[in-house]
Amino acid sequence: MPLVTPSAIAGWSINHATSHARTSIANDHKETRRVGSSKSPTLIGQSPVMRKLFSVIERVAPTDASVLITGATGTGKELAARAIHDQSPRRDHAFVDINCSAIPETLIEAELFGHQRGTFTGAHENRSGLFEKASGGTLFLDEVDALNLSAQAKLLRVLQERTVRRIGARANIAIDVRIISATNCDLAQAVAEGRFRPDLYYRLRVLPLHVPELCTRGDDVRLLVEHFLRVKSERNGQPLRKFTPEAMRALCDYPWPGNVRELENTIEYALAIGLDDDLDTGDLPPEILDAHPQPSADDFRQVLQAYMNDTVPLAEIEKRYILSVLQQFGGNQVRAAAALGIDRSKLYRRLKQYGVMAVRFLQEEDLDGHQLRSH
Fold first, then answer.
1. Predicted local confidence at residue 160, as pLDDT
2. Domains of the chain: residue spans and CATH
3. How many helices (H) and strands (E) does the chain have?
4. Which has the higher per-residue pLDDT, 316 or 264?
């Protein structure tokens, strides 16, 4: 697959359905060029932080250096690893992944390095480890922080010598593997506490890569919702369904502590619970509704009546309403614009017209995703 220039990247989705991820890259007009199947892509975005991620992936993929991917649970670290592999010179070889926390400590070394017959109870035949199976390709170590100190020492030796020795064997086997590892914990802190070897940490962290949390990705929530609805409709052979504006607003306002994985599960829930073509707020999980209290029609009428009693001009009513909604969402322009039903650019123009400085509010800045605070 040819590399993609940053200017061409507007959205990106990775297929997680098969052992090799397939990539689809959308241009600025949201027309998608797909390679292979696209049954369940989950790494997709157009926000500044995701554009930055795609740009970094594009730059690190052609190298052969080790990559350490960090990020909260559910952000898509494995998909980022697959994207690196798919854009690397190793793309035609195996991508082998292992969740280090899912394998008992007594078996992790046998899984990674292999074993000889008779080495331990149950070892009835010679068996190659994951390093051998991934030779020529990429080995992805998910939750690498779960490795015990013995496995860490042997992993370090493999990285230094580029050879592996099966448990119980006498000879070393040359391997050619790129290592990508991932963790959702602070490995530097683990090093300070003596739970992770510092020499291994620096071997793995040659190229650090961070996958952002969904709450920092702004309008990507809406993009992901529409994407998951389309994918699940195609997969299940059902008509495409959509969320009402109120339900979509609730989805955009929710902080998503479980990130993209939680969002996808929420879409599954709504599709299973909802009876109508238009999915409403009542089809969402309770925790999302609890985080998005809906103002009643009586509340709105009371506010409007108070303005009318003061004979406030319509333009002033609009100004007060916009500023009150902005303050309701703590100055977050993304959420305020969604609640108002307008584009963020239009909200920005209104604030500029009112002479309101954006830095007075705790908001997400549009260009680089950093939060601005009042002085």
1. 93
2. 60-212 (3.40.50.300), 215-290 (1.10.8.60), 304-372 (1.10.10.60)
3. 15, 16
4. 264
